[in-house]
Amino acid sequence: MAGFQFKYFTVQQSMSALKVGTDAMVLGSLIEVTKDDAKALEIGSGTGVISLMLAQKNNSIEIHAIDIDLASFEESLVNFKNSPWSDRLSSFHKDFFELETEKKYDLIFSNPPFFRKALKSENERSNISKHAEFELEDFFTKAAALLKKNGKLWLIGPIHDKAIILVEAAREGIYPQIIWSIHGKPNKPQRFVICFSFEKIMTQESSLVIRNEFGAYTNAYKELTKDFHNKVL
């Protein structure tokens, strides 16, 4: 089993694991966690890295992480247990759409399976992680039911799906408070990060460029993620 070393924790990954990627690093870094966020839910936790990042940000938040993939659940279980915040992190082998709970969450976040029309690979775990087998309407209906009245929902996805995601969220009365346009390189938007809430307000829009034209990490990306890297990028 290999490990991905962060500043204060190591994410253990089996050889077949879904690797810690830039999407997880960006989403975990951009999510705003306040002292009032007591309970959080991660949908599709993978190795648990985003939950670990938020536990590092907030020294009291309790996070429930669910994943439909058994191997991912088992990896997150090990990573949570070996982290400095094991008492506040719980992992569950669950299908989000079958989750039954009376709990309401202050914060829900997800790096969901968002490739809706792309060809699938031969790796079944990768397909589960990256290819959507659900309707967006159902996703937002379920998320809205689990979110507190003043709660926040954070998502990352491909830029070409942003418009339809905004439409489907609005159908459930969830509106964008913050939208980040994520550029792999200058003038090449690839992802978005959106913070949703039930409050309909003026959307704050920002952009982040991860690498410059020469392929090196930008100062903005290094500044954003500096609290999580165990060495200077």
Unreliable spans:
123-132
**The biggest beta sheet, please?**
8 strands, mixed
- The coarse silhouette is globular
Number of domains: 1
Task: Look at the structure and give the mean pLDDT.
Answer: 87
Structural Rg: 17 Å
CATH superfamily: Vaccinia Virus protein VP39
Strand order of the largest sheet: 5-4-3-6-7-9-8-10
Please give the CATH class.
Alpha Beta
What is the distance, rounded to the nearest whole angstrom, between the alpha carbons of the first and last residues? 24 Å
Number of helices: 7
The CATH architecture name reads: 3-Layer(aba) Sandwich
The CATH topology is given as Rossmann fold
What percentage of the residues does DSSP assign to strands (E)? 25-35%
Would you report the number of β strands? 10
* Overall helicity: 25-40%
Give me a quick take on this structure.
With 233 residues, this protein is an alpha/beta fold.
List the helices and strands and how they pair.
Layout: E1 2-5, E2 10-13, H1 22-30, E3 39-43, H2 49-57, E4 62-67, H3 70-81, E5 89-93, E6 105-110, H4 124-130, H5 136-146, E7 147-158, H6 162-171, E8 175-185, E9 188-197, E10 204-209, H7 219-225
Parallel strand pairs: 3-4, 3-6, 4-5, 6-7, 8-10
Antiparallel strand pairs: 1-2, 7-9, 8-9
Helix pairs in contact: 1-2, 5-6
